[in-house]
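Key result, reporting period 2: structure in, sequence out.
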């Protein structure tokens, strides 16, 4: 796969729109996720109250984040965890590579972690001479394919069963067709890596300030293996993922699995408070917690946009987003995709790389209605658009803004559009109109029977 970047979002989106197989796979997968989540929430008594409690817990943590991080460091250190602070991706990579070298780690197993993707950890560990294996099934699949993950909770959502079967045959020499067969093949291949691993690397769904605990949520058991089989466990956490108390963490855990995978509770929830103690039979002998900033402090200081940091990475907003359903995750060119990904990438990466991401949104509001924490994605997206627009002249945005401020000009433009509408098929052949020609070449909209304003006024009567 060619390297994708957020700076090429428009080009990558157009290519994804032309991929009929991708759209079919995404349609099937997102419908499945939406159905599972809906069924789970229908059987969730008092769900709105639980959502409100989870939101309150996250907002309280963000309001007290500097103090909670200090408390977390003290509690974790007291429990025997070595705490490291990383200002940016380069510093985080250097810390983890240093731990691996000190441990003389030759084989490293990893649990699913978006933060390790964000800092490009795997290439750094491999450059240091380590053999690195993703152990989440979806991450294992995309690692074999040489691709980044395309969904927050389902990294290989863009792959069909047949794609995976062909990949296993090509890369591993293993042959299977059914999902149980393919899963068993991956299990056998990875079990050897767990037993040989010197170091395990994971993310953290959250950490608890009052106890110094790291909480990890999963369904496959690979994270538990990655944190107990190797001698050394390194957990990487972005600094906003702190819960003040175990009670707050419980409020979040009641919401996260239902919204992510439609489960009452994930199959495995691990609460790790320091390394193995005397008399215990499993667990890492050495535990490290790397707390990553990488631009988040600046977001926290921005009252208009800090709400984006409340995200618990359930992925529900991706599944209902019409843009994500059409183009998938890779088109965003960033680790984080979908509505929350467009926000986070725009906030954490330089604006010259991400200026198009906030515009890859219909503002339909499906994401905000689905978010268990009621994050207002469209409002945040509009704030980002305003900041992007203030830094450059966009002729289409400027023209729309002018028309919106002048009703007579707007009505004249609508009349002109209605006159042109029956002849849109001619636009690709007209010189001097590249934007409109490109639009018309990709779609044939239905005939405009009446202006939106007229139809809306009629509905209100």
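The corresponding designed sequence is given below.
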């Amino acid at each position: 796969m060619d390297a994708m970047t957020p700076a090429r979002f428009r080009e990558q989106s157009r290519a994804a729109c032309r991929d009929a197989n991708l759209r079919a796979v995404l349609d099937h997968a997102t419908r499945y996720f939406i159905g599972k989540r809906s069924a789970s929430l229908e059987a969730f008594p008092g769900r709105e109250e639980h959502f409100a409690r989870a939101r309150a817990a996250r907002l309280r943590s963000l309001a007290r984040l500097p103090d909670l991080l200090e408390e977390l460091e003290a509690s974790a250190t007291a429990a025997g965890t070595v705490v490291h602070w990383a200002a940016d991706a380069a510093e985080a990579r250097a810390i983890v590579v240093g731990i691996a070298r000190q441990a003389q780690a030759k084989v490293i197993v990893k649990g699913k972690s978006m933060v390790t993707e964000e800092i490009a950890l795997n290439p750094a560990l491999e450059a240091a001479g380590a053999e690195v294996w993703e152990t989440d099934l979806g991450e294992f699949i995309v690692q074999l394919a040489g691709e980044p993950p395309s969904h927050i909770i389902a990294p290989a959502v863009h792959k069909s069963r047949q794609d995976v079967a062909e990949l296993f045959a090509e890369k591993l020499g293993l042959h299977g067709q059914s999902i149980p067969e393919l899963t068993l093949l991956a299990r056998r291949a990875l079990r050897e890596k767990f037993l040989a691993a010197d170091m395990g690397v994971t993310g953290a769904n959250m950490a608890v300030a009052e106890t110094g605990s790291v909480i990890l949520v999963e369904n496959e058991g690979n994270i538990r293996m990655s944190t107990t089989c190797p001698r050394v466990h390194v957990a990487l956490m972005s600094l906003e993922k702190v819960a003040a108390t175990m009670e707050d963490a419980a409020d979040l855990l009641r919401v996260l699995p239902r919204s992510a995978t439609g489960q009452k509770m994930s199959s495995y929830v691990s609460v790790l408070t320091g390394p193995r103690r005397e008399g215990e039979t499993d667990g890492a002998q050495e535990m490290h917690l790397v707390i990553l900033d990488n631009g988040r402090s600046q977001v926290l200081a921005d009252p208009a946009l800090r709400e984006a940091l409340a995200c618990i990475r359930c992925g529900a907003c991706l599944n209902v987003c019409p843009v994500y359903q059409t183009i998938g995750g890779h088109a965003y060119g960033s680790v984080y995709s979908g509505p929350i990904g467009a926000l986070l990438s725009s906030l954490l990466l330089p604006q010259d790389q991400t200026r198009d991401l906030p515009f890859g949104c219909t503002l339909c509001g499906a994401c905000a209605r689905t978010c268990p924490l009621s994050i207002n994605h469209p409002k945040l997206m509009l704030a980002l658009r305003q900041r992007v627009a203030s830094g450059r002249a966009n002729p289409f945005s400027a023209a729309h803004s002018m028309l919106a401020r002048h009703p007579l000009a707007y009505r004249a433009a609508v009349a002109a559009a209605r006159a042109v509408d029956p002849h849109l098929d001619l636009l690709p052949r007209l010189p001097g109109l590249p934007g409109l020609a490109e639009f018309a070449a990709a779609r044939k909209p239905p005939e405009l029977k009446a202006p939106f304003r007229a139809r809306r006024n009629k509905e209100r009567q």
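The radius of gyration is 24 Å. The chain has a mean pLDDT of 90. This case is discussed further under Risks and Mitigation.
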